[in-house]
Specification:
single chain, 288 residues, alpha/beta, 5-stranded mixed β-sheet, 39% helix, elongated
């Protein structure tokens, strides 16, 4: 009897173990099939990763324009990362050192001057817009009110300082040796009938000095950042045919890269032109 019970128990245990083995095998096959199958709603192949372009820019209007055309680039597989700068030195320095893929803040005379002074070979890719340079004051309403010995502030960098002097000369406040020389300095002034005291300051600081001077000549990007509207607030301003178009700039080896070409195309697209014209109402002028 004991032998019969042992036999029955053995047969039962074998049957149970066989069943468990069969179930485990079925689960493994099912799990393998499940792991090979795509999840519901997912594509069979993963989408390509976006290429990231890091571009240095002044906050206004350059970064605003870049952010406006970012969707055009994303549709082409490019993620635009805009790094904002409030000075004119770091964007070129960081581009030259490879920390940026491109920058967008400067005109050609400034770029040429910085390349020469620093031994760089940064290169223009596209001309995007012109920022008419203007003269602003909190103390007078017209240049006729400018008194003898008035304080006039201009940028202290070579090309924008020369640009400011040219604008003063065009409006009859001074006379220059060469009224078209972008490299003009105070030593090139041949006549100063009102004995203007011309003070050179960092371009970014000029709007903050309006309470301290009688007149300040300010780049449009810094004027806009300070809440000034060049076409309304400037006592006098460059004409729309100003040659100082702001450029998209990169390193020579990157100029022909597909992503840089697409960025240049987006910055000079009909969408970019419409954005500039609608938002800035003549204070910023498309150069294309």
């Amino acid at each position: 009897m004991k032998k019969l019970l042992l036999t029955l128990l053995s047969l039962t245990l074998i049957a149970v173990l066989a069943a468990c083995g069969s179930n485990n095998g079925g689960n493994k096959a099912s799990n393998a099939a499940a792991s090979d199958a795509p999840a519901a709603g997912a594509s069979a192949a993963p989408s390509a990763e976006l290429i990231t372009l890091v571009v240095g820019a002044s906050p206004i209007p350059h970064a605003e324009i870049l952010n406006a055309i970012a969707p055009l680039l994303e549709a082409q597989g490019i993620k635009l990362e805009v790094k904002e700068f409030t000075d004119y030195v770091q964007p070129n320095l960081q581009l030259a050192e490879g920390e940026l893929d491109a920058n967008f803040f400067q005109h050609k005379p400034y770029l040429d001057d910085q390349n020469q002074k620093n031994g760089w070979n940064l290169t223009s890719v596209a001309a995007v817009h012109v920022e008419p340079f203007g003269a602003y004051s909190k103390k007078i309403k017209s240049i006729d009110e400018l008194k003898d010995g008035a304080k006039v502030a201009i940028p202290n960098d070579a090309t924008n300082g020369g640009r400011a002097l040219i604008l003063l000369a065009k409006n009859g406040l001074i006379t220059l040796k060469d009224p078209n020389n972008i490299s003009s300095t105070k030593s090139d002034i041949t006549e100063n009938k009102k004995n203007l005291k011309i003070i050179e300051l960092e371009a970014a600081n000029l709007p903050r000095q309006l309470d301290e001077v009688d007149l300040a000549l300010i780049n449009a990007n810094y004027a806009l950042e300070a809440g000034l509207v060049p076409t309304k607030d400037a006592l006098f301003i460059e004409s729309g045919d100003s040659p100082y178009a702001n450029l998209l700039v990169t390193r020579p080896d990157d100029k022909e890269k597909d992503a840089i070409k697409k960025l240049a195309a987006a910055l000079t697209s009909p969408e970019a032109k419409k954005f500039i014209e609608d938002k800035y109402q003549g204070s910023i002028i498309p150069a294309f």
